[in-house]
Write a structure and sequence with these properties.
The complex is a heterodimer. Chain A starts with a helix and ends with a helix. Chain A contains 13 helices and no strands. Chain A has a single domain, classed as MetI-like fold. The two termini of chain B are 15 Å apart. In chain B, β9, α7 and β10 form a beta-alpha-beta unit. In chain B, the strands form two sheets. A ten-stranded mixed beta sheet of chain B has the order 7-6-3-4-12-11-5-10-9-8, with helices on both faces. The chains are: A mainly alpha, B alpha/beta. Chains A and B meet through α8 and α9 of A and α2, α3 and α6 of B.
Chain lengths: 319, 293
């Protein structure tokens, strides 16, 4: 082509090259990315430091006592004190929570999402449930003391503690986590695409058949993920248990106590053991035994969560 | 996708041979409407409202058995609304309200004591976007009959339904695999198999091929030609050539834009061959020749 066209072409090429090449590294985005990374590491570092501190403090206990720490009951002697009663208490509470909170919570979520008409009353119920999820746990403790303890007494499970036992504690914790179960289950149900429901109705299914055969199976992974959250809350809360009258000091069931007596008698839970041991006068309780109890609590929690996650992965099909 | 149709006066119904038909008879564009076929669905002055919105006004049309009836018309003219009223799918929309009658073998489907669940077992539906259940292919087809209390051989029923939907050969070795592993066209044929598994009388198809590629579309159309030997089919389509290819009779809907409200109404309903060559109404001719819509 002509020299003029060539010059124009070169000028365009130069201008484009100048504008699309950067003058050097662009600092602002990099700095922002760096800042985010630092914040992430800081928060993880705090957690890691905390866990490391606890693990280091707990190590002597496990080293010298090994498994007997987990299998021994409470004792005033730091050499023989163990968390077994606490493990039993926590697991019984977790069991009651699962038996009570999940069926009721999932059923409530199904009703709210599938059957309830979209009117002011439904929205009010929805808002109330969300507010209840945020109520401080000690309030649930007072609720438990006022209502569930007499209830347990009246149905004959009062036992030697007149109702201030692990049964009442379990019911109270179930009430505590119920709003969370309802909310997470409702989210999971809402996430099921409506085309699946339409297809179900299209082949002549009733609403319950559509829910049971299609909506709930699809929502199950999400509901089980919610299990992880609720179990963590149920196992970790200490305040409501203190109000319900959990034994914070030493206690031991009588030698010939029946299962019923043990169930309705004094009880304790892992977080409460941690709490009470940090207040003992003997230093070993606070320095080495309490951290070891925390480690046991974390392990129990991880195992329960692991089961929930395993269940969720099994139900999360390859579709 | 749509090429300009020839002006009505220059068109004669063409005789075409079908590609993969199991019968050797040539297929006529414009279908085979036969006035001896009984009317099994009768829409009588049907009006549909969504709350205060008057969606469809005064639709009256008879649907004859073992024929393919097509609903065509511009967007928003109410074709899908009318279709969904026939199997009471509009019940799923809380604000939907129906006036007038939809008779099925003489019974008003909106009359007292009619159970919509039972209605949908007689009048099946295939949706625009394939929506198989997140289950295996076998479970997709067997779900409908199972909840209807089918007590016979389920394996046999599943095989027959998939065979009728021209899908058996492709899936017979993988019945336990996920329905989502199938291609779009296969999923839609699976949805057809699912719909016919409950042995309905009538199949409603709401733009069944609009999300499919041309080859898959052709297979669905071939399927309709075979299925009409046993089922009455009503298809909503916005593809006029498709309506011309598959249907025996065609209903043309349009929209009244009236004081700000768009209300759908039936403009013309006649044999397909007539509607595409010599329609009665000017509005129909305008739509078919592409002057609007």
């Amino acid at each position: 082509m002509t020299a003029a066209t060539d010059r124009k072409r070169k000028a365009t090429a130069d201008a484009v090259s100048a504008s699309i090449r950067s003058g050097g590294p662009n600092w602002k985005p990099l700095a922002f990315q760096g800042l985010l990374l630092v914040l992430l590491l800081t928060s993880m570092l705090i957690l890691v430091a905390l866990l490391a501190d606890i693990a280091v403090s707990a190590w002597p206990t496990f080293q010298s006592r090994g498994l007997s720490f987990v299998t021994s009951g409470l004792s005033l002697n730091p050499e023989t004190a163990g968390v077994f009663t606490g493990i039993v208490g926590s697991l019984v509470i977790a069991g009651i929570v699962i038996i009570l909170a999940f069926p009721i919570g999932v059923a409530a979520a199904v009703y709210l999402e599938e059957y309830a008409p979209d009117n002011r009353w439904t929205r009010f119920v929805d808002t109330t449930v969300r507010n209840l999820a945020g109520v401080p746990s000690i309030v649930y403790g007072l609720l438990g003391l006022a209502i569930f303890v007499p209830l347990v007494r009246n149905i004959g499970l009062g036992g030697s503690t007149s109702g201030k036992n692990v049964v009442a504690a379990g019911i109270t914790m179930a009430a505590l986590v119920l709003p969370i179960v309802v909310i997470t289950a409702a989210e999971a149900i809402r996430a099921v695409p409506s085309s699946i429901r339409e297809a179900g109705f299209g082949v002549g299914a009733t609403q319950w058949e559509v829910i049971r055969s299609h909506v709930l199976p699809s929502a199950l992974p999400g509901i089980l993920t919610g299990t992880v959250l609720t179990l963590a809350r149920a196992l970790g809360e200490t305040a409501p248990l203190l109000v319900i009258g959990v034994a914070t000091g030493y206690f031991a069931p009588a030698g010939n106590a029946t299962m019923f007596d043990q169930l309705t008698g004094s009880y304790t839970a892992l977080p409460v053991i941690v709490f009470s041991w940090t207040r003992q006068t003997q230093a070993e309780f606070a320095d080495t035994l309490a951290p070891a109890a925390i480690i046991v609590l974390l392990v129990v929690l991880f195992i329960l969560n692991g089961v929930a996650i395993w269940l969720r992965n099994r139900t999360e099909k390859k579709w | 996708m749509t090429d300009e149709p020839a002006p009505p006066s220059a068109r004669e119904p063409r005789v075409t041979t079908s590609h993969t038909s199991q019968t050797e008879a040539p297929r006529t564009t414009g279908g085979t409407p036969d006035d001896d076929h009984a009317v099994i669905i009768d829409l009588d002055d049907l009006d549909v409202f969504y709350g205060d919105f008057h969606a469809v006004e005064s639709v009256s049309l008879p649907v004859r058995e073992k024929e393919v009836t097509a609903f065509i018309g511009p967007s928003g003219c109410g074709k899908s609304t009318v279709l969904r009223s026939i199997n009471r799918m509009n019940d799923l929309i809380p604000s939907a309200r129906v006036e007038g009658a939809v008779s099925y073998h003489g019974v008003d489907l909106y009359g007292p004591g009619v159970d919509p669940v039972q209605v949908r077992r007689h009048i099946g539906m295939v949706f625009q976007k394939p929506n198989p259940f997140p289950k295996s292919i076998y479970d997709n087809v067997s779900f409908g009959p199972k909840i209807a209390g089918h007590s016979g051989d389920m394996d046999d029923l599943v095989e027959r339904s998939l065979d009728r939907a021209a899908l058996w050969d492709e899936v017979k070795d993988k019945l336990d695999e996920s329905a989502y592993a199938l291609s779009g066209g296969q999923q839609q044929r699976l949805c057809i198999a699912r719909a016919i598994a409950t042995s309905p009388d009538v199949l409603l198809m709401d733009e069944p091929a609009s999300s499919l590629d041309p080859i898959a579309t052709l297979r669905i159309e071939e399927l309709m030609y075979e299925l009409k030997q046993d089922y009455t089919i009503i298809i909503v389509t916005h593809n006029m050539q498709q309506a011309a290819r598959v249907s025996d009779r065609t209903a043309f809907f349009s929209v009244n834009v009236d004081a700000g409200q768009r209300t759908g109404r039936l403009v013309e309903f006649t044999e397909t061959a007539r509607i595409f060559t010599a329609p009665d109404k000017q509005e129909t001719e305008d739509y078919i020749t592409g002057r609007f819509g």
